[in-house]
Amino acid sequence: MKKTCVITGGSSGIGLSIVKLFIENDYQVFNLDLSPGTEGDFRQCDVTNLEQVSEIIHDIASQHNIDVLVSNAGVHFSATIENTSEADLDKVFAINVKGAYAAIKSVLPNMKANKQGAIILMASDQALIAKQNSFAYNLSKTALASIAKTTALDYAAFNIRANAVCPGTIETPLYHQAIDNYCQKSGSDKAAVHLEEEKLQPLQRLGQPEEVAELVLFLASDKAKFITGSLQVIDGGYTAQ
Questions:
Q1: How distant, in Å, are the alpha carbons of 60, 164, 221 from that of 142?
Q2: Burial of 86 (0-12, 13-18, 19+ CB in 10 A)
Q3: CATH of 3-170+208-240, one of 3.90.580.10, 3.40.50.720, 3.40.50.300, 3.30.70.1560
Q4: Contact status, residue 164 vs residue 123, Cβ threshold 8 Å
Q5: At 83, phi and psi to the nearest 5?
C-alpha cells in the first residue's frame, strides 16, 4: 500500500523535485499550490487562505492516512527593515509562516489518530545566520525553525516527527527571479552575479533542487526515525564559515 505525502508549493523548484522523487519512491503525492502542477495529485490552494488549506487537507485525510507533510510553499523578499512595509511583512508571514501553521495544524489530527507521521518544513540557511537586505525573509525562516522544534516536542508522544530543512543557495526559479530582480535594480550582469554566488560557496557551486529532495525523502523515511526537532543544513558548507 502506498504511503501518502502532502506537499505545499510542489509545482516548481525544490517542491517539484520533491514531488517527483516521492512519486518515484511509490508515494501518493498531493500537491497544494496556486500554480497547476505537472506531477502528483494537484489541488489548487492558496496557503494564505487558512480555511481553504484546512478544507483540502481534511478532504485528503478523510480518504487517506497522511504519512508525510512537506511544508514547502514560500516567497522570497529582499529589503532592509526600513524598506519593508507592513504589507510586505504581512505577505511574507502569511505565505511562509501562516501557510505552514495551517498545513501542520490540519494534518495533526490524522497523524495523531495513526500514531505516526513526518513533518518537514522548508526553512533556510537564514534560520541559522543573518544575511543583508533580508529582514522579513530571514525572520520568517527563523520562525519555521522554531515551529519544527516546538512541534517535535509537542507531538513526540504520538510518534510524529518534525524537522526543518535549511537549504543554502539552490538553483531554482526563485533563485533566478531574485538574481533577475537584483540585476534589474543594480544594472549588474547576471552571468557575473551568478558566478559570484557560486564562488561564495565553499564547494564552489550552487545546490540543486534534487539534492534537497533527497534530504527530504530521507527525513520522511524510517531511516530517520530517531531524528526530530532538528535543523538539517544543506548549504555546501556556507554556514560553516
A1: 29, 10, 25
A2: exposed
A3: 3.40.50.720
A4: yes
A5: -95, 10
Q: Indicate the residue type of 53.
A: V
Strand, coil or helix: what is 71?
Answer: strand
Hey, what's the cell of 96?
Answer: 511562509
| pTM for this predicted structure | 0.96
**Angle between helices 13-24 and 209-220 in degrees, nearest 10:** 50
What residues are annotated to the active site? 137
219 Cβ neighbours under 8 A, 6+ residues apart: 118, 120, 161, 163, 165, 227, 232
Q: Write out the three cell numbers for 223.
A: 531511516
Per-residue cell: 153: 516536542
List all residues 6 or more positions away from 94 whose beta carbon is below 8 Å from its beta carbon. Answer: 48
Q: What DSSP line would sit under 85-119, residue for residue?
A: -HHHHHHHHIIIIIHHHHHHHHHHHHHHHHT-EEE
**Domain boundaries of the chain, sorted by first residue:** 3-170+208-240
Confidence of residue 182 (pLDDT cuts 50, 70, 90): confident
Mean pLDDT of 195-205: 96
**Which amino acid type is present at position 51?**
E
* Among 183, 182, 186, 83, CA closest to 136: 83
Note the pLDDT tens digit of each residue in 149-163: 999 999 999 999 999
CA atoms within 13 A on the CB side of 147: 24
